[in-house]
Specification:
single chain, alpha/beta, seven-stranded mixed sheet, 7 strands, binds S-adenosyl-L-homocysteine
Length: 213
């Protein structure tokens, strides 16, 4: 599978029917999603692995991981309407992805971590915290609880925050820069397309737990 082919496949997936600003529902543009997935694949973090997508939305990253040969993929998403779209998207590509409706920032993170179980790799495009300050923190916390390796999409310039926030638990083992063209989606958007600079960070847990352990 070539990067371009993956990108073209992901382009065909249905998006959010009624995106909710409070949940920062922006589907990752296919080129950026394909870049993250391909990068993780080349690092050996996808094929044959147990992969979890936190804030899976319409399933783009989860389905892409499955297409690239992940052994098992689970998506976790708060919005059941988005999960219904994701399930339809998974059927379209005939891939086996489980979606769990759950709140990553809920009151019992240990319980959620147990429900999800350990995995090898987390992939995520968490809310950047534009609507709800620090909305990305529970995603980082959960990711580091369940997987030794995490790929996340963050606003460009997030490295100092991510490094400080995770310093005891993880290190940033890689950074890939990209851009996230956001189409006018919500009333507060003033331009037709706004290009947000982002970075894909690979976080490696300092004391990894693996499903085999
Ligand atoms: N992973 C998808 C969607 C990214 S948008 C993609 O790459 O296209 C962020 C997603 O996180 C949205 O689907 C939103 O509904 C979900 N989300 C926001 N807050 C959440 C929470 N507390 N728990 C679980 N999912 C959440």
């Amino acid at each position: 599978m070539k990067l371009k082919n993956l990108e073209m496949m992901l382009q065909r997936l249905a998006g959010f029917p009624h995106p909710r600003p409070s949940l920062e529902q922006y589907q990752t543009p296919a080129p950026l999603a394909a870049r993250l997935l391909f990068h993780a694949f080349m690092k050996g973090d996808i094929e044959g692995k147990v992969v979890c997508d936190l804030g899976s939305g319409t399933g783009l990253l989860a389905i892409g991981a499955s297409i690239l040969g992940a052994a098992q993929v689970e998506g976790v998403e708060i919005d059941e309407k988005a999960v219904a779209v994701a399930e339809e998207n998974a059927r379209l590509f005939d891939v086996d992805v489980e979606f769990l409706v759950a709140d990553v920032s809920g009151t019992d993170p240990m319980d959620l971590a147990e429900r999800i179980g350990l995995c090898d790799t987390v992939i995520m495009n968490p809310p950047f915290g534009a609507q709800k300050v620090h909305a990305d923190r529970p995603f980082i916390d959960l990711a580091l609880r369940i997987a030794p390796v995490t790929y996340g999409i963050f606003n460009a310039g997030s490295i100092p925050f991510v490094r400080a926030y995770t310093s005891e638990r993880a290190e940033i083992s890689e950074k890939v820069s990209g851009s996230f063209p956001i189409k006018r989606t919500f009333a507060f958007h003033t331009r037709d397309i706004q290009d947000i600079k982002v970075e894909i960070l690979r976080l490696t847990q300092k004391q990894p737990k693996s499903p085999a352990a």
